[in-house]
Amino acid sequence: QKEVEQDPGPLSVPEGAIVSLNCTYSNSAFQYFMWYRQYSRKGPELLMYTYSSGNKEDGRFTAQVDKSSKYISLFIRDSQPSDSATYLCAMKEGGATNKLIFGTGTLLAVQP
Amino acid sequence: GAGVSQSPRYKVTKRGQDVALRCDPISGHVSLYWYRQALGQGPEFLTYFNYEAQQDKSGLPNDRFSAERPEGSISTLTIQRTEQRDSAMYRCASSLVGGSGNTIYFGEGSWLTVV
Question: Which of A45, A53, A89, B29 is deepest in the core (most CB within 10 A)?
Answer without folding.
Answer: A89
